[in-house]
UniProtKB/TrEMBL annotation:
Protein name: histidine kinase
Cellular compartments annotated: Cell membrane
MF terms (GO), sorted A to Z: protein histidine kinase activity
EC assignment: 2.7.13.3
Membrane topology classification: Multi-pass membrane protein
Organism lineage string: Bacteria, Bacillati, Bacillota, Clostridia, Eubacteriales
Main enzyme class: transferase
Species, as recorded: Faecousia intestinalis
PANTHER family assigned: SENSOR HISTIDINE KINASE YPDA
Amino acid sequence: MTRKRRGLSMTSILVLALVGTITAIVLGAMAVFLQTYQRSLIRSVQTSARQSVAQVGKTVEDYLDDVNSLMELLERKLEDPRQDRDDFFAAFLQIRPDVVAVTTYDAAGGLVDCRSRGAKRTEIYQNLSFDPNKMDDYADGYVSTPHVASIFQGYYPWVVTLVAPLDAPGREEWIALDISFSSISAYLNDVGIGQHGYCFLMDQSGNIIYHPQQQLIYSDLKRENTSLIAGLPDGSNESGSMIYTLTSLENSHWRVVGVSFVEELITESVQEVSRILAASGIGILLAAVIISFVLFRTLSRPMHGLTAAMRQFEQAADNFTYVPVGGAREVRALSDSFGQMVVQIQRLMEQVRAEEVNLRKTELRALQAQINPHFLYNTLDSIAWMCEQGRNAEAVEMVNALARLFRISISRGHELIPIRSELQHAESYLQIQSHRYKNQFSYSFDVQEECLDYLCNKITLQPIIENAIYHGINGLVDEGEIRISCRADGDDILFTVEDNGTGMEPEQVQAILRKERSDHTGIGIKNVNDRLKIYFGPAYGITIDSVPDEGTRVYIRMPKVREEAEYEKR
């Protein structure tokens, strides 16, 4: 008796896998250590950045508090009618050389008084510190962004302007204080975070108030992602290779932003640790390679074969033939289970395919069975009325048209009929409706001869024409017109039904394509569209192009079909 050869057990394989797992753990521990070391350096820099930004914020807040105090002093002095302004401003401007100019304005925003450098000025070059169009913003006080003062020709300092209303009666209504921003700008220029980090000011909306690299930003040589920064909370925030540290000022809508770079944090010590870890990792990886080779010989190769078989089964399940793989006992058991699963799935696929074919045929019959009894009732009523009026010839013609209409609708149970028959069906329907509507519209056909012998879904044109009559032409004062065309378009057939009716809005077009049926429509346009897609695929169906008060054009696309059998098999 031949003894069966037994492969390695899963226990043996797990022993080998354990060695590889240890290698992975060591590598992971090295990576975690390095990452933790780097993060500790980043946290250290973040702490330093928060301190620097907090200091900048405190300095700017003190600056703004000082400016506000000066403004309050000026308001009190100017609102006091007993105050000697000349003596006050002479002393004030001498004590505060950082004040560039103090200007007052009337209710219309016109300049009343200007004092600078210890004297009253009468010649003004250009005033950029007060905008009469912003007086609504000035009503509760206003602090401008830093800008260049241009009141005096040849003297253009960098200033911040405070504007406030005056309460005392008099000809002045507004006061503006231009105070030098050079001390704060110089301070911000000297603040550094790391080797290349810096601080700048922005408002709550993300607009830059001051930037130490302002000229580069104005020249588009440097950009700040202000839209991202504006949405960040106060504190340190990492974004890619950048660290943004923000603090909001309590006495204004400004924010101090500190920018530092993660790359700067990779110091020589981190690089040295990385080299040591890399050398250790190489040795461990060499051991892991040897272990992996053993695993490949015992487990991986059969598993790869099983994986490849599964992939082939996914791509071509119908014609797939599975050849079992070898390997460990557990792998062979898995292979046998997969083989049984393949057989069961293929059997189920055949069953589902047969059920889908039956379901599709049932859906088609249900869709084409929606014949509207109102149309038949109205047509027979019209025929009876013609007979009573003695219009027998017209009644006979209408009866013949109705007979042709229903004969073609039945079509001996076929879903596909020749285009020639479908056009006759449409013409019979138009003849009946023309009699019913007392020739309120005309119609015409433009058909390529080569299209007549191809097949199409029956009762395709009639619902489209019915919609054109009821919803387009029926509301016209003038005579309506319906044009039906049939053209070959490459490998497709393209029907077009066009009317000069009232047209539709895009919302109405979408509603028609979603509606199953209406008060008049027997087989709704949606059902026609569904039948085309069920029978021929999603690339075919109905599209509608309509313009209000101009008309509607409906396109019906289907493939060229010679024999119904080729689609019956689907």
